[in-house]
Amino acid sequence: MTAFEPPPWARNPHIQTLLGAVVDRRGDLPLIRERMSLADGDFLDLDWLSGIPREGPILLILHGLEGSSRSPYIKRLLRACAEAGWPAVVVHFRGCSGEPNRRERSYHGGETGDLQQVVDLLTARYGPALCAVGYSLGGSVLLKWLGERGARADVVAAAAVSVPFDLASAACRLDRGLSRLYQWVLLRWLKRSLKRKGRRLGYGGLEGLGRLTSFRAFDNAVTAPRHGFADADDYYRRASCLPYLRAITVPTLLVQAEDDPFLMPGTVPDATALSPAIDLTLCPYGGHVGFISGGTPWSPYFWLNDRLRDFFAPYMEASGTGGQKDGVRREAGDR
Q1: Residues 50, 55, 56, 57: what is their CA dihedral angle, to the nearest 10 degrees?
Q2: Helix (DSSP H) and strand (DSSP E) numbers for the chain
Q3: Which residues does 211 contact at the CB level (< 8 Å), separation at least 6?
Q4: Topology at the third CATH level for domain 8-165+243-316
Q5: Which long-range contacts (CB under 8 A, 24 or more apart) does 40-44 make?
Q6: Distance between CA atoms of residues 257 and 255, nearest Å
Q7: What is the DSSP code (8-state) at residue 214?
Q8: pLDDT tens track, the chain, 335 positions
Q9: DSSP secondary structure code for residue 223 in this structure
Q10: Among 306, 282, 278, CA closest to 292
Q11: What whole-number distance in Å separates Cα of residue 31 and Cα of residue 325?
Q12: Which of 90, 180, 278, 301 lies at a C-alpha separation of 20 to 30 Å from 150?
């Protein structure tokens, strides 16, 4: 696997982050939606790649905060899976599929119970040969679940990209400098989702949302009380994945950038905090879920999908699935 090296025009973390979040010039893939019932009466929506048999290893994909199967970084991975002939399914966190969920609670960075229910369903149907990848907050959820489960984690391989290992530190970083732009956008989406659900369920108490201008303020007023935490500090302490990393036993790839504008500098855990099962790819550049290695600003090439493809190929193709044993057809600008 070629080491990540950005082109001169993409060495700025904000260019990497913004292009990674918006560029997808090849349109949508056909997906099949399945609604899954949860134990508490709520639901999750699963979006499956269409036209690929659901047999053998299946790649389970977790999006980031307020993401979905429509997020460009998810669509790029789905396209790579389709070209490789890999079965893949996007798991939407509660309320992220385009329809508000039924319960007042939603999802957060440490919510692993819903993921366990998804894994239980898929392993009961298709056997234990699951792989999983999570981006950003979805990566945090995945890593925490892997650590909680240890040897009982029913996946054969996992990967996590641009993970906020310590949620308190990430909230602090997003309230500084140019990173406040990402905080403003994400909070706007969170508030919009909350208001939409409030109208659907008929509950109030949302009048003060406009005053919540930081993640810490939002998590203190909304996330913590709705999910059983005393306050934002209690949520950050109990939900962060960092303390669980040493307990992971499944082969796991981490892809992180030192210039990630969502993370405080120097906060990516070193080898002393990682399980021997974890393979950390730490790049000087890459931004947040960017990792553009070529092309042009209008048609960038995303090295990240090559890295994920190469990592998962031995597991996804172990039982003969995968339409192209050599991996994904490479065309600059298509990832």
Answers
A1: 40
A2: 10, 10
A3: 217
A4: Rossmann fold (3.40.50)
A5: 40/103, 41/102, 41/103, 42/94, 42/101, 42/102, 42/103, 42/105, 43/101, 43/102, 44/91, 44/92, 44/93, 44/94, 44/97, 44/114, 44/117, 44/118
A6: 7
A7: S
A8: 689 999 999 999 999 999 999 887 666 789 999 999 999 999 999 999 999 998 879 999 999 999 999 999 999 999 999 999 999 999 999 999 999 999 989 999 999 999 999 999 999 999 888 999 999 999 999 999 999 999 999 999 999 999 999 999 999 999 999 999 999 999 999 999 998 888 887 766 677 888 999 999 999 999 999 999 999 999 999 999 999 999 999 999 999 999 999 999 999 999 899 999 999 999 999 999 999 999 999 899 999 999 999 999 999 987 544 433 333 222 233 33
A9: I
A10: 306
A11: 23
A12: 90
Cα–Cα distance, 200 to 193 (Å, whole number): 11
* Encoded amino acid at 117, one letter: Q
Task: Give the global pTM.
Answer: 0.92
Q: Which residues are catalytic?
A: 136, 260, 288
Extract the tokens encoding 227: 């999910």
Quick one: DSSP state of residue 155? -
CB 42 within 8 A of CB 101: yes
Quote the DSSP letter at residue 30.
Answer: P
Position 285: which residue type? Y
CA dihedral sign, ordered 235, 241, 246, 248: positive
On whether the CB atoms of residues 305 and 328 are closer than 8 A, the answer is: yes
Q: How far apart are the first and last CA of the chain?
A: 16
Q: Where are the beta strands (DSSP E) in the chain?
A: 31-37, 43-49, 58-62, 88-91, 130-135, 157-161, 252-257, 278-283, 292-296, 299-302
User: Look-up: residue for tokens 């009048």?
Assistant: 207
